[in-house]
Every structure is written in C-alpha cells, then in structure tokens.
Amino acid sequence: MPMLAPLVRSGLRLRTTLGLSDDLLADLAAGRLDLVLSTIRPRVRGVQADPVYDEEFLLVAAPSLALPGTGPRELAGVPLVAYAEDLPIVRRYWRTVFGRRPAMAAQVVIPDLRGVLSAVRAGMGVSVLPAYLCRRDLTAGTLVTLAEPDEAPINTGYLAVRSGALARPAVARVRAHLIEAFRTAPTY
User: Distance between CA 187 and CA 44 in Å, rounded?
Assistant: First the structure.
C-alpha cells in the first residue's frame, strides 16, 4: 500500500479487496477488479500478468517455542498457525525444505498474515511467513527462525490486469507505477 501513496496524494481513488489469489483472479477476469497482486501465476483467459517480486519464506516461532532440532518429527507436536486450512505457505516450505507435505493440520487459522505474525509472536505456535513481514521481529528477538535451509523457499508475486483494462488511464497509471516501484524496491 505505501507504494501507492504518491498516486493517492495526486487524486487516485483507491478501493482494495483482500482474499485468496484464485478468488481475486476470478473477480479480475469477471471485471469486478482492475488489478490484482497474486501469489500464483495467473492462468486465466483474458488476464495478463508480470512477475514483480520474489518473497522468501521462513519457519518462525517465538523464542519460547524454539527447538534444538527442527524437522518434521520435532515439529509434529507443536501447534501450527496458518493463513488457510490447506496450508499453502506451509506446504510450499515443507516440500522445498523437507521434501514432503506437512503431516499436521493447523491448530490456528487466521486469514491475514499480520494476524498469523501476531499469533506466532504471542507464542501460539510456529508458522511459515514471508521474511519481509517478520524482519523486525527477528532483529528484535521476538521471533526466531527454526531452520536455516541451504535454499530458502520463495514465492513470486504477479501484478495481473484484465486484457483491455490498460486502455483506462487510471489503471495503466497504477500498473506502470507499481511495476516501477517493485523494480526499485528492496528485495522481499
């Protein structure tokens, strides 16, 4: 959102919708949204997308939940906090780092990553979060990473627009601004 501040100050009217990428992309294709930041590559007819960022994922917990060895076996009895029941972020991390799907279910589901962060910070369980979201907590020591994989899992974010929508000057302006802002932003 901060990337859009200059456009809002110059008169842009902005309305946001939060949700899962599949739902947002369906709304984009149906004409209910103008632009979507999606964490999955859009494969919807009539939608074009540009990769705009990569986010790194970390397995984190409050220091009180830090374990001496952290693998699937050690984590089996620890509460899991997740963004969604189907564990999309956790599942990606597990497959990349541990070579398998997670065997556990989420004990706490909060459909907002900031809420997941708050729950983990409070000691409710472990989770997998984007590095950019928990950097401050890691620096402050209110969170710790539970694993140091050779190659951290990443997820690419895409800026998607419906075909033909760029004919609308406001949509084209926001898209161009976001692409440039992501291009010059720090790594996520």
Answer: 28
Instruction: Report the distance separating Cα 171 and Cα 173, nearest Å.
Output: 5
Q: Provide the pLDDT confidence category of residue 151 given band limits of 50, 70 and 90.
A: confident
Question: How many residues can be counted in the chain?
Answer: 188
Quote the strand ranges of the chain, DSSP E.
35-38, 47-61, 81-82, 108-109, 127-130, 144-145, 154-162
For 5-153, list the strands marked E by DSSP. Answer: 35-38, 47-61, 81-82, 108-109, 127-130, 144-145
Say if residues 188 and 132 touch (Cβ distance below 8 Å): yes
Triad 27, 17, 43: Cα angle to 5°: 35
**Signed CA dihedral, 60, 65, 66, 70: sign only:** negative
Minimal CA–CA distance to 7: which of 178, 182, 166, 165? 178
pLDDT digits (tens, 9 = 90+) for 70-94: 788 888 889 999 999 999 999 999 9
pTM of the model: 0.81
